[in-house]
Amino acid sequence: xxxxxxYIALVLALAEGILMxxxxxxxxxxxxxGVRSMLSSEGIRWLMGxxxxxxxxxLLSYLLLAAIAVGCLLRSGITQVSQMPRLSYRSQRALWMxxxxxxxxxxVMLLLTxxxxxxxxxxxxxxxxxxFSASLIPVAAFSVCASSIVYGIxxxxxxxxxxxxxxxxxxxxxxAPVFLFYILVxxxxxxxxxxxx
Length: 197
What we know:
Helices cover 73% and strands 0% of the residues. It is built from eight helices and no strands.
């Protein structure tokens, strides 16, 4: 699958180039069709002026936070607990402390949402949509990171601050192809909306 990814990225980039040429041809051949050319002055202004706006969606921040959380989880060693035949006392204690941090995060979220007039509910008292639903993925990522870091420190997987720092960066390196494909897919999608929308 890894060998196939560069070709998929190339296909997406070529599709963007073909769309540019096709939009120019269709807008010239069928001016009444409503197709807008990406190679016109309007299209080039749209492409240059909206590129960062196209990419800056909540999805990008969710992908980034999820990558950090997954990297921290993987590097902490907590994912290998189920493969160990017998847990050492240190690993057991680390697992309990990591679970305690996760439970504390859940309790805090319950207190911020479940009591009457909770501050993360919407103005009508609903969970969806509300500040709670908008913060669900960031809070989940923070909770996973916090419990993984506590597990890693207590278990001895993380010996120093730089180990924790590298664990947080590991997920971003691990998910780097996802960010490239996010850019290519979002640009192609928004270009299709510009040309035919």
